[in-house]
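Entry for the shared binder. Reason: the reviewer on the internal report wants the predicted structure included alongside the sequence.
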Amino acid sequence: MIRILYFGHLGSLLGQTHEEAELPAEVQDIEALLRWLARRGAAWDKLLRANPALKITVNKQFADHATPVKDGDEIALVAFAMA
C-alpha cells in the first residue's frame, strides 16, 4: 500500500487531499504511477501528466519521473491551477 498526498490546488480539483492505494504490478516508478492515476479521467491527466509545474516527492525527498516507487512509500504531488 502507498499513501498519496495531493497539495496545492490538486486537493480541491481532484476531490481529495490524500488516499491509500495498492500498487498494481505495472507501477514501478513515478511515471507509471502518474499514467495509472491519469486513467481516472481528463482532469487527472491534465493535472498530473500534462502539468509542467507538478512537483513530486517520495518519502519527503524530491523525485522525478524515473524515481522508483514501492509498497510503503508516501508520494506527495504538489501543483496549482493551470491557466
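Summary line for the report: The radius of gyration is 12 Å.
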